[in-house]
Backbone:
């Protein structure tokens, strides 16, 4: 019985060196290395089969393509020809097969392990490309949200770096060049959920920054003079700004809501309501 690599691995004919390789058994160290490689391939193939049969977005693709990838992995999971061939070579005529005997591993088996590894890598690469296609719209949308936030921040009195902006930039940098380490499938379920939440935080931050700029002008917090009321308003404004910088959006919204009530309660254009008392504009 002779192992023939699957056509899906790019090899459709027997190894021409098979007979020569089988005559020269691997050393103990080489046998150990082969068995480790075989176990890693088997484990990776099983994980990929489970992934391709899962509901993860990255596993969703045209059925014909998915079945082709599944076939590659299942053939590796189910392959036992190297074991059957080896035992048949070692079993004397008239005796039962000894399952504990040493297997005569050869260079052929090393080649098989390498072919399996290359096949698994081709599956992972296909899944990574599929994941990139699924992520692309999310990355584009997040870049737009990030541009809006950065544009809003330019209206602030001084430069400010928002944590939401930094998180979005890190996400884009990480997933724009998606890779997979150690033959693992790129699971996207939690990643896409996080992307939606992060984009929402970026857009909410931009909205609050616009409100912050509007209140800065509406309450005239940059004007000359410094009444106790103006100072208190300015302090609250800076607390809102700091909360935005730290991505503490509920706290920032609460501070801005308090400032908005003050701005809307001003009794007349010529006066400004400052935390409980009114002061004429020309007295500021």
Residues:
């Amino acid at each position: 019985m002779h192992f023939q690599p699957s056509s899906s691995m790019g090899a459709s004919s027997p190894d021409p060196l098979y007979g020569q390789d089988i005559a020269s058994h691997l050393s103990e160290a080489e046998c150990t290395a082969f068995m480790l490689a075989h176990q890693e391939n088997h484990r990776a193939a099983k994980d990929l089969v489970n992934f391709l049969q899962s509901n993860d977005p990255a596993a969703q693709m045209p059925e014909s393509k998915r079945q082709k990838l599944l076939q590659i992995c299942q053939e590796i999971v189910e392959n036992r020809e190297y074991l059957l061939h080896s035992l048949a070579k070692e079993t004397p005529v008239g005796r039962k097969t000894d399952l504990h005997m040493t297997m005569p591993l050869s260079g052929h088996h090393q080649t098989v392990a390498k072919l399996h590894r290359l096949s698994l890598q081709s599956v992972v690469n296909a899944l990574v490309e599929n994941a990139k296609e699924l992520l692309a719209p999310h990355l584009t949308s997040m870049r737009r949200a990030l541009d809006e936030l950065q544009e809003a921040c330019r209206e602030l009195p001084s430069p400010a770096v928002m944590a939401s902006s930094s998180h979005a930039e890190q996400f884009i940098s990480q997933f724009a060049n998606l890779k997979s380490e150690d033959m693992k499938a790129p699971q996207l379920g939690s990643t896409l959920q996080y992307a939606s939440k992060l984009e929402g935080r970026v857009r909410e931050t931009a909205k609050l920054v616009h409100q912050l700029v509007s209140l800065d002008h509406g309450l005239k917090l940059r004007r000359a003079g410094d009444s106790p009321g103006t100072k208190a308003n300015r302090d609250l404004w800076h607390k809102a700004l700091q909360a935005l910088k730290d991505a503490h959006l509920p706290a920032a919204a609460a501070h801005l809501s308090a400032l908005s009530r003050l701005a809307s309660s001003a009794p007349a254009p010529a006066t400004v309501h400052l935390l409980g008392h009114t002061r004429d504009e020309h007295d500021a």
